[in-house]
Amino acid sequence: MARTTGKAVALLLLLMSVSLRPLAQELSPRAYWPAPQGTQIGALGFAHTRGDTIPDPSLPIAGLNSSITTAQLSVRQTFSLAGRTATFVVDAPYASGRSSADVDGLGKVSRDYDGLGDVAATLSLNFVGAPAMDREAFAEMLRAPRPLLGGSLRIVAPTGRYDPERLLNVGANRWATKLELGYILPLGNQWIWEIEAGGWWFQDNDNFLGLRREQAALYSVETHLVRQIHPGLWVSLDANFYRGGRSTLGGRRLDNLQRDSKAGFTLVFPFNRRNAFKLAYEQGSLNDSDESFRAYSLSYLRTF
Asked: pLDDT at position 60, please?
């Protein structure tokens, strides 16, 4: 029984890396691009992720395959804070998926899951280049773009569906915080280069199959090359790299350091002044191995 439980926990750790991957590997071009005061944007997005992994040789797992569909509702508000452009964003996801793996001694183990995910809130603030602006000042900035520097604080609350007796859950049952700095460099009037650096810090999960799960900080660097085709229509090439996040389970440190990367592209195209679609594709590699995953997403954006 103890051996079976150990294998189940090992499987759980690998499956959890799939559920947490969107948190750590977000590709978000133009996250620090300002907008006029009072701008409100609502978004409804759908994403589908498929992953096929080759496990850490130290784990008794032969392979993993996941198929996850996520719907997310987001609301964004731009306002003035200390005379600078600030943005507040709330994201509320719902996920449904299935993950399976071949486990030595257990055969094929699979888990279906669905439910509301963890709600996230992000506050970003411009430090250099974008004071709080009305629409006229914003239009002037677009005609003569300048370098921008900003920062953000993102908090993820443990609001998602979580069953401490199940191997895989939509919610993480812990708080998570991300601090980040972002820099934008205009390359003429049509090209923009962006780079962000940040880190995630995680609260312990004290109810992880009866054990305490701790996770070290996870650090990331993200970059985007954006091409502005005409106002409102743009495309970007995106990539990020991150390292860290090693876990401790029940006082035992695990050999699961994350050394991962992700690349993709994003296209935003408006169909009138207030409405637009956002299309994105992402592909990643895991832990310096042949493991990989792909994600496709489509979002509808509405400006109020």
From this structure: 34
152: closest CA among 201, 215, 196? 196
User: Average per-residue pLDDT in the chain?
Assistant: 84
- DSSP letters, 191-211, are EEEEEEEEEEEE--EEEETTE
Which tokens belong to 45? 């997005």
* Cα 147 to Cα 138: distance, rounded to the nearest angstrom: 14
Closest CA relative to residue 129, chosen from 235, 32, 203, 59: 32
Collapsed DSSP state (helix, strand, coil) of residue 301:
strand
pLDDT > 80? residue 292? no
Closest C-alpha to 95, from 115, 120, 119: 115
Provide the residue range defining the domain that includes 186.
2-303
DSSP tag of 131? B
Which residue blocks in 79-199 are alpha helix, DSSP H?
135-143
Count the domains in the chain: 1
Nearest-angstrom CA–CA distance, 151 and 137: 22
pLDDT tens digits, residue range 197-222?
A: 999 999 999 998 888 989 899 999 99
Q: Which helix (H) or strand (E) holds 14?
A: helix 2-24
What's at 66, amino acid-wise? S
Range scoring the smallest mean pLDDT among 2-6, 24-28, 201-205, 248-252: 2-6
Residue 94 · residue 72 · CB < 8 Å = yes
Tokens 């609260």 locate to 203
Q: What's the token pair of residue 223? A: 């970059």
Which CATH number belongs to the domain containing residue 72 in this structure? 2.40.128.130
Looking at mean pLDDT, say which of 3-17, 22-36, 136-150 comes out highest: 136-150
Report the predicted TM-score, pTM, of the whole model to 2 decimal places. 0.87
Place of tokens 């900035």: 141
Q: What is the dihedral of CA 15, 17, 19, 24, to 10 degrees?
A: 180
